[in-house]
Design brief:
By secondary structure, this protein is of the alpha+beta class. About 50% of the residues lie in helices and about 15% in strands.
């Protein structure tokens, strides 16, 4: 179950990309436009989340103090303690309330993420699971055609079709059996015919096959011809390259490029630059939202501060296509600007009173901590 992610990707995200590409033929600009449209459409939800975080930053010290008092006062009466804790949460607000808008956004953001990880920006992957059986067992199995879940593949600019990987005789083979793994449209049209209709893109969209499990049990050539060799389970991964995978944008060499290092170990500075921009924008967003210093625990604050570094470093070991990284950077910059604008918004009256009280208390504590000249010294000086 994909929670509507596939539906959103095929019926919302990709049509928006097609629309913008038809106006300005640039897949890089189409990614930017799609990201901004989705972010603006989710603006009301994210505003509620940011406002709740700002509110909790202000009331959290008072709330924590009140919770501690309740725990101490009703330590011998767990039922009353729980009741008072709930009343305190009702008064100050539930810290988890800000998670609800985020949960509502997740299917849309995941659909956007999935869209940019597929055609035309990146390679579309098909996993085909096979079972190789001895000849005497295969006779008892009724053959049935096997097909993977279809994916939208761009075969030309603005033209996409749903393609699935097909095994006409099924995915259960006898040792020594030969078959062919093919790509077809959902209407049964072979992928090879589509390529013949678009000879200018034929070399860009040539399918590839790779055995990811059970390589000793099966053989497959570049055209998808299979020979079953030994009994056991086998997984074959089929790949159809993205039409725009090698297309560059600004300083990005190729939108489908994956990883900060190439096969020779050379650094891909366009990818590294975007990873750095992602980390910086995430850190600035944390500073503006107040997440970097919301706890009395220094260790927890330190972990929060290094979170942008950890997230950025993750992309070095779990690489993503350049187009996906560009979307994440743009999304972070949008979030940072949104947080900054909302941070300048006047606070509600009750929250402003709390802030004023906290500032007055801080000034009073600072004044008490300052060194002063004892009165006795003044008397000695005048005598």
């Amino acid at each position: 179950m994909d929670f509507g992610i596939g539906f959103l990707s095929n019926n919302v995200m990709l049509p928006i990309i097609d629309l913008f590409y038809s106006v300005v033929p640039s897949y890089g600009l189409a990614i930017i436009a799609l990201t901004l449209i989705i972010r603006f459409s989710l603006y009301p939800l994210s505003v509620g989340q940011i406002r709740n975080m700002r509110r909790m930053k202000i009331v959290q010290p008072i709330m924590q103090k009140r919770m501690a008092e309740v725990k101490e006062k009703y330590k011998d009466d767990p039922q009353k303690q729980q009741e008072e804790m709930m009343n305190t949460q009702k008064e100050f607000g539930n810290p988890l309330a800000g998670c609800f808008p985020l949960l509502l956004q997740m299917p849309v953001l995941l659909a956007l993420f999935a869209t940019l990880r597929g055609s035309p920006f990146a390679t579309a992957n098909y996993n085909v699971n096979l079972q190789i059986l001895p000849s005497e067992q295969i006779e008892r199995i009724q053959p049935a055609a096997f097909a993977t879940k279809p994916s939208s593949i761009y075969i030309d600019e603005g033209e996409r079709v749903k393609i699935a990987a097909i095994l006409p005789g099924g995915n259960k083979l006898a040792v020594g059996e030969h078959t062919k793994l093919e790509y077809q449209t959902v209407d049964g049209k072979p992928f090879e015919e589509l390529l013949e209709e678009h000879p200018e893109n034929e070399n860009k969209l040539l399918p590839q096959w790779k055995i990811t499990k059970g390589a000793e049990r099966i053989s497959i050539d570049s055209e998808g011809n299979i020979e079953a060799l030994q009994p056991g389970d086998v997984t074959i991964q089929g790949n159809i390259p993205g039409l725009a995978a090698d297309t560059g944008f600004l300083f990005i060499k190729a939108l489908g490029r994956v990883g900060a290092f190439d096969d020779d170990g050379a650094v891909r500075w366009d990818i590294v630059t975007m990873i750095g921009m992602f980390g910086i924008s995430l850190y600035v967003s944390q500073l503006l939202s107040g997440q970097s210093n919301t706890s009395d625990n220094p260790q927890q604050n330190a972990v929060t501060k290094i979170t942008p570094v950890l997230f950025s470093g993750m992309f070095l070991f779990f690489p993503l296509p350049a187009g996906v990284l560009m979307y994440m950077v743009i999304g972070n910059i949008f979030q940072t600007l949104q947080t900054y604008i909302l941070s300048k918004e006047p606070l509600p009256e009750e929250l402003q009173k709390i802030v004023d009280a906290q500032e007055k208390e801080a000034l009073s504590a600072e004044a008490k901590a300052l060194p002063f000249e004892p009165k006795s010294s003044k008397k000695k000086a005048t005598s």
